[in-house]
Amino acid sequence: MGSPFVDGIRSIVGSQHVLTGVELSPYVVEGRSPEAVVFPGSIEEISAVLRLASEERVPVTPWGGGTKMGLGPASQRLGLVLGLKRLHRLLEYEPGDLTATVQAGMTLESLQSALGRHRQWLSLDPQFPGRATLGGILATNASGPRRHLYGTARDLLIGVTVVEASGAVIHGGGKVVKNVAGYDLPKLYVGSFGTLGIIAELTVKLRPLPDDDRLVLVGFERLEECGRAARLLMGSDLIPSAVELLDGEALGRLGLAEGEESALLIGFDGLAEQVAWQAEETTRLFLGLGVTRHRLLAGAAREETWRAVREIGRRVFPEPSAVVKIGVLSTQVVEIVQQTARIARRNGLRAAFGAHFTLGLVTGVLAGGQGSAQPVVATIKEWRELARSIGGHLALEWAPLAVKEQVAAWGPSGPEVKIMERLKAKLDPKGILNPGRFVGGI
Amino acid sequence: MATLTEPRKKVLRRQMEAIVGKSAVLSDPEELLVYESDGLTLFRALADFVVFPTDTQQVAELVKLASREEMPFVARGAGTGLSGGCLPTEGGLVISLVRMNRVLEVDYENQIAVVEPGLVNLHLSWAVGPRGYYYAPDPSSQQACTVGGNIANNSGGPHTLKYGVTTNHVLGLEVVMPDGEVVWLGGKTRDPQGYDLVGLFVGSEGTFGIATKVVVRILKKTQAVRTILAVFAEIDQASEAVSAIIGQGLVPAALEMIDQVTIQAVEDAFGCGYPRDAGAALLIELDGLEVGLDLEAERVMAACREGGAREVRLARDEAERALLWKGRKSAFGAYGRISPAYMVMDGVIPRTKLPQVLRRVNEIVAAHGLRVGNVFHAGDGNLHPNILYDPRKPGEEERVVKAGAEILKVCADVGGSISGEHGIGLEKMDYMPFIFSPADLATMQRVKEAFNPDGRCNPGKIFPTKKSCVEVGPAYRPHPIEEKGLAQRF
């Protein structure tokens, strides 16, 4: 591609860091190809690229590891894909302060391995840590089972450097773990899908790695009893790090089932004796609830099981027809799983479910429909209405384009969306950053 | 300051009475005086009216009235803030939320509560305590400060080292926007879609609107707790020990430092069992499961001994634990007995910089011919140097303010922040450039405009400006509840 715009981009970062033509194929999203891909090597280069894009009003699609590109509505025009992969360094790390400052293109796995040498970690466990970048994890607010105890990106991000659409480089927060000076801008960028600015650097709070870390898998004859067990656990003195509920379909397809209807996967970490005592305690706690088995997993078995749970959306069916996330209250999890499963069956689809039980976050995966979008669309619409009727919400995490064209990725928004629109207008007045991918068409 | 003409004032007063009732509007200057300051009595500003709504609708009507009449307004909780954040710097309307103090709903199974903003922080823990729950953020003024005020300032407290500050515990807010519209941000369910407006609102110091309902997480009380006092001959040893404790791979629930000046003041006043000749002491609390907690305590005590502690003591029972905490928490009352006034700073530093920064703090204060007592959240590097002074001595207060600014500059220069939990308010507006560039501040300004386009909601705060017409000085007056030893400043 030889447009003056792309030439301008080349002159900023050097031709070797700009892809065009056939090289764009890995960056095609839902059938749409970007006009070019650029890999800036510094904040200054990001700034110059955005300034140019802003002048030319070319949309910019930020790209970390590319693991979440299917999330949200389909982009009308990818424009310039801005890849952060060259910005992958650990900038500052003082173990005694339990903080680290990293460039946005660093993968979670490489950060964890640097921290692990000092027996510390960033307490986030989203899927695909080998590919997902810190910038992408923050921008999409990605999380995993251990958020039950350790929270999400908003709880861990203490400082951020952002390049705004205009090219201005701004900082929010700082490098200390406690800070109320000025507005809490880091929160604004978490989960903003790159629509307000491109995260270039970030400072996070760290935690010491626990001495011991295990997973207790408890099978239940009945889903209701599994839910009762999880509620007993929540109200007990135990301090699990994760409480995941899987339905029978998910268990079977992840290769974890032994014929039961449901299971809890409970994480315990801490001193070895604390882990052991808690694992033991769950057997007493769940007495009389139709437990089919109680298994303690450690090491590689534990790791592989958690990986399967995190990747439920891609693992349970070879060809899923949609992945959704439903947010309800923990007390509504069992009910929503039962009812949504019934709706899927009625529409001739298969469905599998996993939930961050205590947080009321349910991932539902659909399959079937013989290549027709119609039953999938109908099912998701019914699910959304059901979630809404009990005060919850549903977001489409992934679906083929044919489905996305007929069902909104994000749920309907309330009056608060006006504030979001004003924030967008203030921070990206020309609307060049990831246009149309976000809530309310932002 | 108040500039309304008397006839106009009468008209406005009648309109307010129509919204909240006759007894819920103050406009007599004598009565307004009570609301001219917060816990930082260095600054004073008089409102034209103070009103006491009892529900969201009334707040919305008042805000609409203020908007229609182009009158500035500011929300106020208990007035225990320490940065002048709730002062009516341009006169107008103070909307006091103290009558909106109900616990509306507690959902134990889902571990959330819905409360009104005027609820006293500690009263929430009392309300859910019988069922084994509590509200984690515990600012030291928690016997008086309100949940709404905590939201404005994103308040912390000693136990936030492990459990996080206010923002980590708020799920949803019903907010009266500066144009009077009532909007929910977030809610009871996790991961609401869109920008994290709750995260942005918490800590916005009352400049984005007025929260009228609050959804918070409540936590299950832990099985067990261990409280340790470690006594050091030198303050440097105590500072070094802080990092050594964190280096044990444990996150204590609290890790507080108390220096010699403070220990002596506390012992003179209350006798809590801290050795008077110690250079500094650390108060360390661990909580969690009963199993393994003694092992964790042993690790912490060993780290203290290795760091040169001359005495390490584990509280034997609840009475001893309470006494040790009384020493920490009554420090501010104790300062009152050794100094006519004191001003508390709130800088934050990376905790590995503690030894050098504490030395600098003491040097700076000495260079201004003043004394300082340090009692603070060492675990998260949140310093609270309390500069002791006598406001009746000419020029002393100015020296205090200068020393304070120098201390915050040192915090900024080592990569820290100018406020850990008290907020910027009026006090630190002009220090914002220590840590933020003009571009950073311009972005914050734009974010503010998205919520508060006319700027009438709590004007004249946070951003550097010289034009505020606030009175400064002279006399420090302890807050009435502080005098009674009921609450502390942080």
Topology (elements, then pairings):
The complex is a heterodimer of chains A (442) and B (490).
Chain A: H1 4-13, E1 18-19, E2 36-38, H2 43-56, E3 60-63, E4 80-83, E5 90-94, E6 99-103, H3 108-116, E7 120-121, H4 134-140, H5 147-150, H6 153-156, E8 157-163, E9 169-173, H7 185-189, E10 198-205, E11 207-208, E12 212-220, H8 223-234, E13 242-247, H9 248-253, E14 262-270, H10 272-285, E15 291-297, H11 299-310, H12 312-315, E16 320-327, H13 333-346, E17 350-356, E18 361-367, H14 373-389, E19 393-398, H15 401-404, H16 417-427
Parallel strand pairs in A: 2-4, 3-4
Antiparallel strand pairs in A: 1-2, 5-6, 6-10, 7-11, 8-9, 8-10, 12-14, 12-15, 13-14, 13-17, 16-18, 16-19, 17-18
Chain B: H1 6-20, E1 25-26, H2 29-32, E2 43-44, E3 49-51, H3 56-68, E4 73-76, E5 93-96, E6 103-107, E7 112-115, H4 121-128, E8 133-134, H5 147-153, H6 160-163, E9 170-176, E10 182-186, H7 197-201, E11 210-217, E12 219-220, E13 224-232, H8 235-246, E14 254-259, H9 260-269, E15 280-288, H10 293-306, E16 311-314, H11 318-329, H12 331-338, E17 341-344, H13 354-367, E18 371-376, E19 385-389, H14 396-413, H15 438-451, E20 471-472, H16 480-483
Parallel strand pairs in B: 3-5, 4-5
Antiparallel strand pairs in B: 1-3, 2-20, 6-7, 7-11, 8-12, 9-10, 9-11, 13-15, 13-16, 14-15, 14-18, 17-19, 18-19
